[in-house]
Structures are given as structure tokens and as C-alpha cells.
Amino acid sequence: MPRITKEEKVAFWFVAPFLVGFSLFYLLPTLYAFVISSLDYNSFKEFTDVKFAGLANYIRVFKDPIAISSFGRSLLFTSCYVPGIIVTALMLSMMFNAKFHFRTFTRTLIMLPYVTNVVAIAIVFSILLNPYDGVVNKLLVSWGIAHPPQWLAGIRTSLVTVAGIEVWHSIAFPTIVYLAALQGVPRDLYESAEIDGAGRIRKFLSVTMPLISPTTFFLVITNIIGSFQNYAIFRVLTNGGPGTSSRVISLNIYEEAFSYNKYSYASAQAILLFLVILFITIIQWRGQKKWVHY
Description:
Elements: H1 6-36, E1 39-40, E2 51-52, H2 56-63, H3 65-97, H4 103-109, H5 112-115, H6 118-128, H7 135-142, H8 158-170, H9 172-183, H10 187-195, H11 200-211, H12 213-228, H13 232-237, H14 249-259, H15 263-287
Antiparallel strand pairs: 1-2
């Protein structure tokens, strides 16, 4: 075998902490989930009584209307959350990239929602969006809207409202990433476009968007993955209610595992969620060749 160079040894020791952490906290739990999803296991049984179930847990998921509807709500949440955070982050980054007074202070303020505790966010927004005594609905009534939305208390509005709150909570990271991408766009390209008679919209579509498309691709993938795994914001804001209107799949998996002790069934749902995310990611990787420019 070829001799390992000194640089390769140093590189290995730099990578080793990540590999150890990834193996302990990601790889092994994932493999364990695959194993117990094929068993009939819950905490009320002795381990000797656990039997092999094969694909029975996966088949049960497709026959469970609550699980299927939870997957559908996660897709709906993703379709609201991802476009919202991408568009909002791009608009904010373009504003922060311009020159204005107190620009540094304003850039700092964008980090406040990101570092705020989720429980504190839930308390504040629950008070603001109270359908009866909340400040938001009182303002809407004073502006002539007789029947304002129910927000978190409405069956049709709860999921979209949580998506909007989560956009506000998570907006800092994509905004900073977009800002870094915008500052990397060469100024001479804008000058050349101006010489050719391009206006602001044409410069944005023909210069800015193509050059920041790798950043957009990165943010779309990471936010789609994060939206399917989003649990805390639903837990503290609605806990899946009212009824099951905001019971997304991450919340359903948690309830099945730790409230009903159906670990094998919950693991099967988690594996199916992994496959859904993998399928969407593969489609994005194949489609990015048409609109991402490196």
C-alpha cells in the first residue's frame, strides 16, 4: 500500500472529530431506526418478545389516514415556508447590500429572531395573534375588517401562520448567505449591462440571479430539508392543533414514539420521511443543471 504522507495524517486527525460525532449521533441512530422499523417493538414488551415484522409497519403507514395527512401537511408547510424565506431573504439582502444610514446596526438586528428562544417566540406570537384580544386582530378590526383571520386558532390558517412565524424566526441565516453572494458579484458586470441599456429589472434577472443561483440552490435544499424536520415551532405554537390541522409528520413521529411507545411504527414513518427528502433532493440535483450557473 502507498505510504501515508504527513499531510494526510494531519488531515485525518482534523476530520476524525466530525466522523466520530457523525457516526455516534447520525449514522448509528439511522441504522438503528432501519432495524427497529422492521420489528414489532415498543417499551411495554420484553425484548425477548419482540418479533420480526418485515414491511408491516411501512404498509401500516399507508393505511393510516393520520400519518398520510401528516405527510401532506408537511408538504404544504414546505411549499409555503421555502418560497417565503427565499424571497424574503433575497429582498432583505439586497436592501442590506445598498448604502444607507445605520446599515451596520440594521444588519445586526436581523440576528435577533435567530438567537431568540423558540418558547419566547411562541408566547409573544400567541399573544399578538390571539383571535379575540390580540393586537393584530384589533388593528384589523379598526381598519374595517369585520372578520379577521383566526391565525393559530383556525383550522385553515394555523399551518400557514406557523410557516410565516418560522420565516421570521429563521430569516437571518439565508439573508447573511445571500448578502455574501451579492457582495461577490463583480461590479463591472453591472457597468457593462448599464452600457448596453439594461435597467434595474434586467440587471437583476440577467446578472444578479444567474451569479447567485448556486447560493439559491444551496438555500433551497437546506431549507426544504429543515422544513420537513421542523418540530419545535409546531410543538410550542399549536401542538398539532386545532384538531390535527397542523399535525406535521415530525410531530406525528414524536407522538407515536414517545406518547404511544410505538417505536417501530414511528421509525417506519421516519424512514419514509428520509426517503421523501432524498427523492426531492435528487430531483433538485438533476434539475439544477438547467438553472444553476457556476
